[in-house]
Amino acid sequence: MKLAIEVLSTADPIVPELVEHRDAVGASAGDVLEGVQHDDDALVAVAHGNPSPAWP
């Protein structure tokens, strides 16, 4: 599964918009959900100065 994340500006210069693009051809729904959850957890962790969590 390929992932790209865009960071877009918004009307509020402090709050960006994050847009995720996924190419999940051949992946199961469970694989996609696991990937989304992991990536979101990683973004939150890094935004708070913590290391990105490892894949389970």
Question: How would you describe this protein?
Answer:
The radius of gyration is 13 Å and the shape is flat. The chain starts with a strand and ends in a 9-residue tail after the last helix. The chain has one domain. It has 1 helix and 2 strands. The model has no long low-confidence stretch (mean pLDDT 86). Strands 1-2 form a two-stranded antiparallel ribbon. A hairpin with an 8-residue loop joins strand 1 and strand 2. The protein is of the alpha+beta class and 56 residues long.
Globally, the shape reads flat
Number of E strands: 2
Mean pLDDT: 86
In angstroms, what is the radius of gyration? 13 Å
Domains, number: 1
User: Portion of residues in helices?
Assistant: 25-40%
Strand percentage lies at: 25-35%
Q: Note the main sheet.
A: 2 strands, antiparallel
Output the strand order for the largest sheet.
1-2
Helix/strand/pairing category = alpha+beta
Number of helices: 1
Quaternary state of this entry equals single chain
Unreliable stretches covering 5 or more consecutive residues? none
| Distance linking N and C termini | 16 Å
SSE series: EEH
Précis, in short:
It is built from one helix and two strands. The chain has one helix spanning 29-47; strands at 2-8, 17-23. It is flat and about 40 Å long.
